[in-house]
Amino acid sequence: MVISLLIKAILDPKGRMLETRASRNGQKLLFVKNFLQHPNMLGSVIPSSRFLINRLLGQVDWDRARTIVEYGPGVGTFTSHILDRMPPDARLVVVEKNEDFVRYLKSAFVDSRLYVVHGSAEDVQEELSKLKMDGADYIISGVPYTPMSKSLRARITQEACAALNPGGTVLFYQFTRTALPYLRSCFTQVNRGFEPRNIPPAYLFYCSQT
């Protein structure tokens, strides 16, 4: 009941998301609304914890990160931390399928280094080509593999592998181990981690070809 009232408060009469300031309350409401409408597109109703963010982004060599791609940024929980840490001459491309999230990201983050793409992770090479970018040094993804078809899991994994620049790394966080065999089929090296201080606890996968 409470969640329903909160959702109605941020929708216009036609059920569309109202424009909101880049506030934490608006961010949370948007996240909850979209989780209830599209639960398979989001891994959890609760945004990632600072423990998960710090553990995953701790794997990034920021001195060499010039082109970073993030899949499924949602309301920008990881996005804001990536922008805070990356160099002034780096670029961040966020690829998001949900139109509400795309609108929110474009209004909430005013940063010339950020490129918000309304698209799918399975088309990352095409999207980078449109932006005249050769490839990615890092790809960061929390897009949940469990609800996907096997063919879509394979396509997204293969695209991520193909889009990496030499020496690049893909950083996945998931709430199950479903992605592991797909990652191992594409990458020569897959290291794993675990973050118990997240809700739910998260599995981490660090993937490269070296």
Describe the secondary structure blueprint for this structure.
Blueprint: H1 2-9, H2 24-37, H3 50-57, E1 67-71, H4 77-85, E2 91-96, H5 99-108, E3 114-118, H6 124-130, E4 136-141, H7 150-163, E5 164-174, H8 180-186, E6 189-195, E7 202-208
Parallel strand pairs: 1-2, 1-4, 2-3, 4-5
Antiparallel strand pairs: 5-7, 6-7
Structure notes:
Residues 1-23 and 34-45 have low confidence and may be disordered. This protein has helices at residues 2-9, 24-37, 50-57, 77-85, 99-108, 124-130, 150-163, 180-186; strands at residues 67-71, 91-96, 114-118, 136-141, 164-174, 189-195, 202-208. A seven-stranded mixed sheet has the order 3-2-1-4-5-7-6, sandwiched between helices. By secondary structure, it is of the alpha/beta class. The protein has one domain (42-208): 3-Layer(aba) Sandwich (Rossmann fold). Strand 6 (189-195) and strand 7 (202-208) form a beta hairpin. The longest helix has 14 residues, at 24-37. The protein is built from eight helices and seven strands, in the order H-H-H-E-H-E-H-E-H-E-H-E-H-E-E.
